[in-house]
Amino acid sequence: MEDSTRRRFVEELLDWHLRNKRDFPWRRGASPYQLLIAEMLLTKTNAEKVEEVFEDFIASFPTPTDLAEADLASLHRKLRPLGLWRVKAKSLRRLGRELRTRYDGMIPREKSELLKLPGVGEYISSAIATQAFGASEVASDVNVSRVLGRVFSGNGMGIEQAARLAKRIVPKESVLDFNQSLLDFGALVCGARNPLCPTCPFSRNCEYYKRKRTGQSASM
């Protein structure tokens, strides 16, 4: 796909996002701690489900110290509506204890330090560095790789490959918007199951849709 087509995709994606962006409490002036909690809760969990528990969870555990001192039973009650709630409870308490002990209750600013936190991997560290501290880190997960893989290759794309592509095409002044637009587009239009291809604004240039229409094998 030509560079001009890629640039047009990014421009149209950002324009789509202006009209269709999702509204969540962690997108409204949240602190670095609140953003980190949101990303931890969002791991393998639908955003709408996380929205149901997020504000109550933050009210119950407003600081890393509160989280570090929480008993698992309390965490279980707050997280039960989510999938993997037992795993999330243990991971979050470990996170709170690490933040209290190693970082004096503060969220580290550097991605390299964020990666040292329990339960924090490449995606979450990139997301927090960008959302909380204004870094220019492209956050790529399975949803982002699905969207970019469908549009640009038609046969899927690994997370690392998607991250490399995203870094090439992302506008440097709009990294956060770009990250969120891919997430929202993947959730609202380009879902893992039953993507809305016929009404998708990018279907005319989407390799996945071209293969689908012509009967060729299209993964993802």
**What is the CATH homology-level superfamily of the largest domain?**
Hypothetical protein, domain 2
Structural class: mainly alpha
Radius of gyration: 18 Å
Terminal Cα separation, in Å?
19 Å
Number of helices: 12
The number of domains is: 2
Percent strand equals under 5%
**The CATH architecture of the largest domain:** Orthogonal Bundle
Report the biggest beta sheet as strand number plus sense, adding barrel if it closes: none
What would the CATH topology of the largest domain be? Endonuclease III, domain 1
Present the secondary structure layout.
Blueprint: H1 3-20, H2 32-42, H3 47-60, H4 64-68, H5 72-79, H6 85-103, H7 111-114, H8 122-133, H9 142-152, H10 159-169, H11 175-188, H12 207-214
Could you write a compact summary of the structure shown?
By secondary structure, the protein is mainly α.
Q: What report would you give on this structure?
A:
The protein is mainly α and 220 residues long. It has 2 domains: 3-22 and 140-214, Endonuclease Iii, domain 2 (Orthogonal Bundle); 31-133, Orthogonal Bundle (Endonuclease III, domain 1). Helices cover 61% and strands 0% of the residues. It is built from 12 helices and no strands. The longest helix has 19 residues, at 85-103. The mean pLDDT is 92.
Features:
220 residues, mainly alpha, Endonuclease Iii, domain 2, Endonuclease III, domain 1, 12 helices
